[in-house]
């Protein structure tokens, strides 16, 4: 793989090949990661990276746009078809700039906004006090019910009536349940708030028709393109026509300069892939695998936040196992199972050494793993977490993990 880089820069090449090996031999359970197709990889590494194209199709600030305009328009049209959106902007570099642009477009600094608390599953751009969103806007944070671990819509309604936010943000980065978009919309309408959905984690499941879409109800919906949607690293914003101009202006020239057209070509490919019938099968299997993995973990006495999952994502509180999230993550890294340590709602521990772990099934499902493999993964996780300091047990599990992974090729890895 990558023979030119090998010749020109063997030091870098060695690390790239070590990473290819790690991806091939290990089980990827980080719920925000996936494996893109060879076509998406090719677009990302293509000559499109050479071109500046500030502006939008038909209205650019540089010459030589006749091909770029076609490519960006393809991406926009396919995204509209996939999600049924009125207006789409495919230029955001990633999720955080997309969220920042939405706030910049539709709010004044200091406006009141509602978002989900970070340790209840919200994202850093949903009002973290030390982040840009938390400093620029007056974020009011809602949370999950402490008993059920499920979004407390009565609290959302009460806070909305009390604080009269200009915008309500719904969406998550570590919340395992489906979201009642209609309930959010109803509450927002009661107080005259703009509705904003961050479906970065679940966009592939929405596109695949296995989770309800907020696009028909919400004013603005954004997503990254590299998680369950299985496209290149990047993001997109969908909105109702009345917000189109404000959103486009906030992205360019408000926040970004030249769009990354190589990534936009990758997005066009990803949307075409997601429009195919087989993507529906993929989305359904992601959900089935997550459900099976959650049940298999529960059988092994893992305590899951909300007691399960409706999506691709599982959050486990390891307090009863006596192993904090960081120690579990390290032991699992050792056996070739990658996930991330994560806070659980109202976590008494710090985000650097939290009580829980977050895992999910988008990447393993892309490799073709099904329920039988989920059973094995739950078993390896249980054995590794029960033997965090036992090198010989961890080494034994690593061999078993590797043997299974070799039966499931990773797209784009030819070693
Ligand atoms: N870092 C992403 C995730 O892992 O969920 C969110 O930005």
In short:
The protein is an alpha/beta fold. Helices cover 45% and strands 13% of the residues.
Considering the chains and any ligands shown, give keywords for the structure.
alpha/beta; Aspartate Aminotransferase, domain 2; binds D-serine; globular
Description:
This protein has 415 residues and is α/β, with parallel strands linked by helices. The protein folds into 2 domains: 42-274, Aspartate Aminotransferase, domain 2 (3-Layer(aba) Sandwich); 282-405, Aspartate Aminotransferase, domain 1, CATH 3.90.1150. It is 45% helix and 13% strand. It contains 16 helices and 15 strands. A 7-stranded mixed β-sheet has the order 4-10-9-8-7-5-6, with helices on both faces. A 4-stranded antiparallel β-sheet has the order 11-12-15-14. Strands 1-13 form a two-stranded parallel ribbon. It is globular, with a radius of gyration of 22 Å. The model has no long low-confidence stretch (mean pLDDT 98). D-serine is lined by residues 32, 95, 123, 173.
Terminal residue distance: 7 Å
The top level CATH class name of the largest domain:
Alpha Beta
How many separate domains make up the residues? 2
Determine Rg (CA atoms, Å): 22 Å
Average of the residue pLDDT scores: 98
Structural class: alpha/beta
CATH architecture of the largest domain: 3-Layer(aba) Sandwich
Helix content: 40-55%
Q: What hetero molecules are bound to the protein chains?
A: D-serine
Q: What does the largest sheet look like?
A: 7 strands, mixed
Strand content: 5-15%
Poorly predicted ranges: none
Count of discrete alpha- or pi-helical segments spanning 4 or more residues: 16
């Amino acid at each position: 793989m990558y023979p030119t880089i090998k010749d020109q820069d063997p030091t870098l090449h060695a690390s790239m090949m070590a990473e290819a090996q790690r991806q091939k031999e290990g089980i990827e359970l980080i719920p925000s990661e996936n494996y893109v197709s060879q076509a998406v990889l090719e677009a990302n590494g293509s000559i499109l990276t050479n071109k500046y194209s500030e502006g939008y199709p038909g209205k650019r600030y540089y010459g030589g746009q006749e091909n770029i305009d076609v490519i960006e328009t393809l991406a926009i049209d396919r995204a509209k078809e996939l999600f049924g959106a009125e207006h789409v902007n495919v230029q955001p570099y990633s999720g955080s700039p997309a969220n920042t642009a939405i706030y910049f477009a539709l709010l004044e600094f200091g406006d009141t906004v509602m978002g989900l608390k970070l340790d209840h599953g919200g994202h850093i751009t949903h009002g973290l006090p030390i982040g840009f969103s938390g400093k620029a806007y007056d974020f009011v944070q809602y949370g999950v019910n402490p008993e059920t671990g499920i979004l407390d819509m009565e609290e959302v309604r009460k806070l909305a009536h009390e604080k009269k936010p200009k915008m309500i943000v719904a969406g998550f980065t570590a919340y395992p349940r489906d979201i009642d978009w209609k309930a959010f919309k109803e509450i927002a309408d009661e107080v005259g708030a703009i509705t904003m959905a961050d479906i970065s984690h679940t966009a592939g499941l929405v596109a695949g028709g296995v989770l309800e879409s907020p696009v028909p109800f919400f004013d603005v919906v954004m997503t990254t393109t590299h998680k369950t949607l299985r496209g290149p690293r990047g993001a997109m914003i969908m909105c109702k026509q009345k917000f189109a101009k404000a959103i486009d202006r906030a992205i360019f020239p408000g926040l970004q300069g030249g769009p990354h057209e190589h990534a936009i070509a990758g997005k066009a490919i990803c949307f075409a892939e997601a429009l195919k019938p087989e993507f529906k099968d993929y989305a359904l299997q992601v959900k089935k695998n997550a459900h099976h993995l959650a049940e298999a973990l529960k059988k092994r006495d893992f305590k899951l936040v909300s007691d399960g999952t409706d999506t691709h994502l599982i959050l486990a509180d390891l307090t009863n196992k006596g192993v904090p999230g960081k120690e579990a993550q390290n032991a699992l890294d050792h056996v070739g199972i990658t996930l991330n340590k994560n806070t659980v709602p109202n976590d008494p521990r710090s985000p650097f050494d939290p009580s829980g772990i977050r895992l999910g099934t988008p990447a393993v499902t892309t490799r073709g793993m099904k329920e039988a493999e989920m059973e094995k993964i739950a078993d390896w996780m249980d054995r590794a977490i029960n033997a965090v300091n036992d090198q010989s047990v961890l080494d034994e599990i690593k061999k078993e993990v590797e043997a299974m992974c070799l039966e499931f090729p990773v797209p784009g890895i030819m070693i």
